[in-house]
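User: quick one, sequence for these tokens?
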């Protein structure tokens, strides 16, 4: 299947990001812990030059704990602090503070040398659509947050959420666009449900997914459906349809429905925790 898909707003997103980045010191980049590479846009490295950086492996509850560990090590070798979080339950949110301090250390030292004291660090959350940016901002800022008004010298209309004395967060996240030029990236984004399913053929997606996980997580299908993955994906889908009672008129197996069940089970973690990319 062809996984190419171009959201219409990429140019606008880039322009907005460039404007917002001028206002901030720290970029809090969210990636999906199941596919930390495909859910990233490397353009952020260029856009974010000279800024403090940190990566949050969000949805880490759905990813393999071993995978989370190797990705944290990987980002650390790039000099970027990474933290595992689950924005839905707020697990890991408390641990972010230390990483924020770490990422802003240089800036604070620079400020101090120039005699600027107590200027808060301004941060912005960025990530591709559906990676959990809004959920994270809500979890991190919580209800206790104070919204600050417009500030002199700051673009009108920007809202900042004050998080303690030393940190202010832009209340709207920056939207990054994924790298769709790469078919493999497109496919993995489709697996996690980041590409609109309407333009995809569910059955083909499920077929690619079954092939993809066959060696990586050989026990996942058995763990969920009680049978081992069959020789071919279509046999596996047929068996899922049978087990789940997916039939069309005339007792014909409904493979499309089985495919949807499979992908939904994966996306909600019912196939077990899986990381689909290795550093
Ligand atoms: P965005 O702003 O980056 O576009 O993403 P958003 O916060 O809207 O989150 C997208 C989906 O991901 C939401 O699910 C949200 O609940 C879920 N999500 C965010 N963070 C996590 C996490 O750490 N773990 C898990 N398991 N899920 C997370 P939804 O299906 O759109 O809504 P709902 O299921 O919450 O009703």
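Assistant:
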């Amino acid at each position: 299947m062809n996984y190419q898909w171009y959201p219409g707003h990429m140019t606008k997103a880039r322009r907005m990001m460039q404007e917002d980045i001028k206002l901030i010191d720290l970029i809090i980049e969210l990636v999906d812990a199941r596919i930390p590479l495909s859910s990233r846009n490397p353009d952020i490295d260029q856009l974010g030059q000279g800024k403090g950086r940190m990566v949050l492996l969000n949805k880490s509850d759905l990813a393999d704990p071993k995978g989370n560990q190797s990705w944290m090590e990987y980002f650390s070798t790039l000099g970027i602090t990474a933290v595992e979080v689950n924005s839905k339950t707020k697990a890991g949110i408390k641990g972010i503070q230390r990483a924020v301090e770490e990422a802003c250390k240089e800036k604070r030292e620079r400020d101090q040398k120039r005699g600027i004291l107590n200027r808060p660090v301004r941060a912005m959350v960025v990530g591709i659509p559906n990676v959990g940016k809004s959920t994270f901002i809500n979890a991190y800022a919580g209800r206790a947050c104070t919204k600050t008004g417009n500030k002199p010298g700051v673009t009108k209309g920007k809202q900042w959420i004050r998080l303690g004395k030393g940190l202010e967060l832009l209340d709207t996240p920056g939207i990054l666009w994924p790298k769709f030029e790469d078919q493999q990236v497109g496919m993995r984004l489709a697996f996690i449900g980041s590409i609109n399913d309407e333009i995809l053929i569910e059955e083909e997606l499920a077929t690619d997914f079954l092939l993809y996980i066959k060696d990586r997580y050989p026990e996942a299908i058995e763990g969920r459906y009680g049978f081992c993955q069959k020789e071919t994906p279509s046999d596996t889908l047929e068996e899922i349809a049978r087990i789940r009672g997916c039939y069309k008129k005339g007792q014909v197996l409904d493979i499309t429905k089985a495919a949807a069940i499979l992908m939904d089970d994966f996306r909600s973690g019912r196939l077990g925790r899986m990381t689909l990319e290795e550093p």
